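Subject: Cell division protein FtsA structure
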Amino acid sequence: MEGVKEKQGQLIFGLDIGTRSIVGTVGYLNGGKFHVLAQRSKEHETRAMLDGQIHDIGKVGETISQVKEQLEEDLGRELTDVCIAAAGRVLRTVTTYVEHTFENDREIMQEDVYSLCTMGVEKAYEEFQNSNTDTDMKFYCVGYTPMRYYMNGYQMGNLEGHKAKSIAVDLIATFLPDDVVDGLYKAVEFAGLHVANLTLEPIAAIQVAIPEKFRMLNMALVDVGAGTSDISITKEGTITAYGMIPVAGDSLTDILVQHCLVEFETAEQIKRKCRTQEIIEYEDIMGLPQTITAGEVLELLDPEIERMTQMVSDTIKELNGDKPVSAVFVVGGGGMVQGYTEKLAAKLGIVKERVAIRGQEVMQTIVFELENARKDAMMVTPIGICLSYYMQSNNFIFVEFNGERVKLYDNGKLSVTDAAMQMQFPNDQLFPRRGEALLFTVNGKNRMVRGERGEAAVIRVNDEEADMYTQVHNGDRIVITPSTEGVEAVMELGSLPEMGDALAVYVNGRQISLPRTADVNGRRENEFYHICQKDDIQIRNFYTVKEIAEFLDVPLGTGIKVNDTAAQPETRVYEHFTVSWDMENPLPKESVTVPDPVEKPKNTVAEAQTDEGKNEPGVQIVQETPTVPQLPHPLTVIVNHTPITMQGKAFYVFVDVFDYIDFDLGSAASAGRSIVTNLNGRPAQYMETLTEGDVIEIYWKNLK
């Protein structure tokens, strides 16, 4: 085995875990041909598998161990990694298209094609998840086949080596339930093996049975095993569909069990011997010797073969667009029973010569480096499993995530993020969380203050510090301590930018600074007010004369003037306005109250008239005129040649205009200039009442 030792790094171990038996093949690829170094097979001692599904993991694992040990003895080396295939039980397929564009034209490498296919598999999985109605069942991708490649929008047989800006692929991906995949992995692990690649049995079989040069033809491959019949369709140079029916060789054996009154293994031997012997001898469960002719066996099996081939024919037509294929290749032991190919041809409506069992005929590129090698239809799938390793890397790994075992589809670049997504770990617990934001409005515009950031999640892989992008491998232990939420947003009114600059006004010739104030939800608040959720804040850019006196803690006197114009206690004073009053003569308290905008009713005195219309001497009657309240109404005036409409009051004074125009009253604007305020062509008084259509001019004039 010196030659084997030289090729140890290249050896591929393929294992066909079938319903009736387990077949192991070990070999290597060299010069485009696969060299088989060892073969071993063993039948299950009990019915540990049914219809391609493992029912007894321990029993199947023991059989795998025995096959593995026999191969290791033949090779003189230990086997640790294995390639396996799953039967198409409850098979689902998704066909998708994915494209990748480069920044510039570049030569396409093998890695680019692999990445493109990986993108296709991931997209197919997303599409499958969105359409999957079996919400209680988790599915995994167990194989994929590129159907067509595209380069810069044109179909291309092989992308590698070409220069292109964009590449794309039509890809068919296959999915199986978790219980099928998980059972296979556990049985293999039971035998001390690690899965290097997982594919689907029809994908594996077609690698050998239908070479690429035949795939231009519309053909079908039927892999008839013991529990399932797996089907593949080819056309126009690619594989177009996969399918499966849960009926195969075991259904024929079950008929012989009942008729011959024997246990399953004896019935299986009777079925096989009828291909080579005319009379078969056996012993029934009572210990009595019995005989049966091959003709009797075939007569017993004929109805079931009719049913099997009808189901296969119907599935082929369904996968092929409701029409038969041109030819069918049959592999697997279940299809070797006499009459199977003829009946399938009849069901499809094609000549019987175009449905044939394929074995050694399709193994022209297989080199058997062992004596007495088996080259029949039973070996097509095991060798195809080995070849699939070179065609696609499709595997699952298992990691421990916060104490739970999780299975991940291995695309070669798995990270902590992938494990977290598979376990549906909440995204907001992976990244630092901000405290609750503070939402409010300032002068009618929405404002938000973010909360503080919390602490990031603490991630460890195999007890080493890691992050979300740390790559993970089979058996890794991932522990994530959830992130924390930061402190909620807090803000005082005085922290608003609009509250930053004080109002500078001149009172009796002296400049003073007035702190900004605001109305919060209609109530006056100072700079120390803590803003609450959904507060409505209106920044005030003025003080009234009365408020200035209160702020200065001085009495308000007579002779009030604002910008040298007579004013009232409630007259508004804006940035850089001048205010004055007589400090020696304070106003009476009652005169400082807010005037009622609604006029008071007036009394009139009239002389009483007699019925004759004459006045009665000395008699006066006091008549009250009815009160007519003034309601708020809009008023439109022209300010600097632009109409503006004021709203919300019963009457308006000149100073109200400043609430509706964008006029800079700041210190930078007023430097070296004085303000001009005209109403209908004359200087205006700030408390002068406005009427509809008034023409107003407001501007700065340079001082000379």
